[in-house]
Amino acid sequence: MNETYQEYINRVAQLTLPGTCSSQLQTIQTSPKFIDGKVVPFPGYSVITPPNKDDADNQKFYSQIQLIQQSIIQQLEPGFVIPLTPESFHFTIADLVWDHSYQQAVQENPQFETQLREQINQSFQQYQTTTNDRNPIQWQLLGITIRPRAIVACLAPKDQASYQTILDLRRCIYQNAGLIALGIEQQYDFTAHITLGYFGPINASLNRSEVCVIISQISDRLLEGEPTLITVKRGELRKFDDMLNYHRQPDWAAISF
Fold first, then answer.
1. How much of the chain exceeds pLDDT 90, in percent?
2. Cα 12 to Cα 78, 112, 170, distances in angstroms
3. How far is residue 8 from each of residues 150, 171, 172, 201, 229, measured CA to CA in Å?
4. What angle do CA 150, 96, 176 make, to 5 degrees?
5. Domain at 5-26+35-256, CATH from 3.90.1140.10, 3.40.50.2300, 3.90.550.10, 1.10.760.10
6. Distance between CA atoms of residues 18 and 30, nearest Å
7. DSSP H helical segments within 78-195, as ranges?
8. By its UniProt entry, which InterPro entries does this protein fall under (predicted)?
9. How far apart are CA 67 and CA 251, in angstroms?
């Protein structure tokens, strides 16, 4: 599941095309992370960049993401997409454990969370001992992508070094024997993105063709003018209670690039 730089670019570029959007809209589902438009518990852990509210270095980027989100919501049927709060926007570096898997793990092993935090710290230390690269890590907004239960802003690395840095850190995480013993594993291909919202109830009368046109037009506009870039300066272990609230303690693992 670890693609080369060019393989990643080719795959992600396909995700923003109108034809892909059209086919993905045929199989969308209501997200269980929200009920009646309100967020519900969905606990777990991820390695992410600091959320928008804690990321002073990327305010211009997140302001642009918010404008895109507003444009989408305004043009689509009310309630079709449940928007995330702009304060919670973030770049996920590595998903770790969530929902039922998380709940089962902490029930079976009272030390699970402590061990998880220790092993992520080990992964970060391993990464730092194996790389001397200190080039800026930048990813640019490529377009809007439809996922089975969400709508996201898709990101592409500005250069090969930016991609390789994230890939190397993910390898240090997912190939950590201590994390594997805790049941942590890579479950799908990495697609860098910012989640904009999750799908609410899907009406039988939903005009999918119209939705696709709206999404494609917004994606096309993103390719005009200067690239919209996020600079990844820090990765943090964060616990989430739901899809809006990501928090951490000061002594939890973090890594600066």
1. 92
2. 28, 34, 18
3. 21, 16, 19, 32, 18
4. 145
5. 3.90.1140.10
6. 22
7. 99-108, 112-130, 160-174, 177-181
8. Cyclic_Pdiesterase
9. 34
Indicate if the pLDDT at residue 132 is higher than 80. Answer: no
User: Are the CB atoms for 120 and 97 separated by under 8 Å?
Assistant: no
Report the 10 Å Cβ neighbour count for 77: 14
| Residues 82 and 200 sit within 8 Å (Cβ to Cβ) | yes
Q: How far apart are CA 91 and CA 139, in angstroms?
A: 10
Here the tokens at position 180 are 């594997």
- How far out from the chain centre does Cα 194 lie? 5
Confidence of residue 166 (pLDDT cuts 50, 70, 90): very high
